[in-house]
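Teaching note: in complex prediction, the entire set of molecules is handled at once rather than each chain in isolation. The prompt given to students was simply: 'Predict the structure of this complex.' The entities are:
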Amino acid sequence: MGYSDKVRKMYQAQIKGIHDAGIFKQERFIHSSQAADIEVEFPIGSSLKKVINMCANNYLGLSSHPEVIKAAHEGLDSRGYGMSSVRFICGTQDIHNELEKKVTEFLGTEDTILFPSCMDANAGVFEAILTEEDVMISDRLVHASIIDGIRLCSAMHDTYKHSDMDHLEKKLQLHADKRLKVVITDGVFSMDGDTAKLDEMVELCEKYDAMLFVDDSHSTGFIGKTGRGTHEHCGVFGKIDIITTTFGKALGGASGGCVSGRKELVEMCRQKARPYLFSNTIAPVVVSGVLKVLDILSQSTERRDKLETNTEYWRKGLTEAGFVLQPGDTPIVPVMLFNAKLSQDFSRDLYDEGIYAIGFFFPVVPNGKARIRTQISAGHEIHHLDKALNAFIKVGKKYDILGKTKQDIIDMYGL
Amino acid sequence: MEEIKDVVLEYVIEEYLEDEDEEITYDTPLISGGIVDSFSMVSLKRFLEARYKISIPDEKASPEAFDSVNKIVELVKEFIG
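The expected output is the structure of the full assembly:
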């Protein structure tokens, strides 16, 4: 037997190490559908508790929208449950093609290819379009899935300091001799909630003949005046060569992702991207739901407008209460606590007050930058935000951090 | 060879240190010390190649060979000839 006691003990020791380091991740079971109000079993085995969800990527409140659920039901009835095949054998339905066309139109690109997830899109895209003659130049804070995609690609890789355009320019000069250059960034950075300077990046890419890649997973559907994403927000709609995004966040939140951009690059993904070639695509039921989401968003900006109003209200409330926030204007609003244990204690106390918001600490964020990452939704009503704000203030008072500076909090709790 | 040492040190500080208060010496472990990730090593290699008009083969550009300013200087000297 290969899985001997010795092997088992080795893994047990590793898991204990994760526990001892205080970074063991524990799931919390939600017994309701995803929404602003949820019922949670935590710790496992305890009775259900009604809490307000302040940490979902359900930015537009569409995860359990009745019209989306109805469309998904209809898709299930008309197109079945599964495809039992990858796309290029017998796993492509008319609705997959329809969704690719609708996403192309929504994002203002030339073509789109669906992937089982945006993680898969990011894992597959670079290897499909680049070779060892090329270079990828990425922001140092890009999402983990992009880093995995970069690792799978034979092209040279270099980084630039987070959102530092002078540094990016130096790197573009350093690698001027490469056949192809791709600059890689998130549209909205998931941990800090700040937005990439896409207008400046487009200029630099034009100047140095580089392609621009943007992962807009935390933007599509709500950033920009009509919610098309960071390219709309930055005034460079139609100028991004490659956009990857997800249907697992604002766009209904089920699963799936895509690569959208220049048609030749999308075609290269269709011919070569391994997660596309060797895995089933998005299930028909989910495709039907996302099609409805895009219909809803194309008809009205009501939901992204409400999200914007909610975000302003939430950020203003926390600021006036005296919390240290990460600056920004997206629905990702990190409440900075700096100390890892404080972020865990704070999260637990919030939960006792009926507020579900998770503490993030190293290695998810840099050492000494622990925080509670709150995420606002169009599904939140003002009464949700008020209740959450009151809970934050109560817990903030308990730890005596209201009105305190970063240095004050570090002096009190350490890094 | 004092000059190479200082050029490399200055480049590493400028390129990799995020915190202005952080101090490094010629012997500070860069890669094993977590200051330079192995991804970012490529720009250091390309910088040295361009600056000193040398070509460092990939098999010589190991994380160990790039682990301190002094080690990098040794490597560069090997190729300057």
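Point out the following to students. Residues 302-321 of chain A form the longest helix (20 residues). Residues 66-299 of chain A form a domain with the Aspartate Aminotransferase; domain 2 fold (CATH 3.40.640.10).
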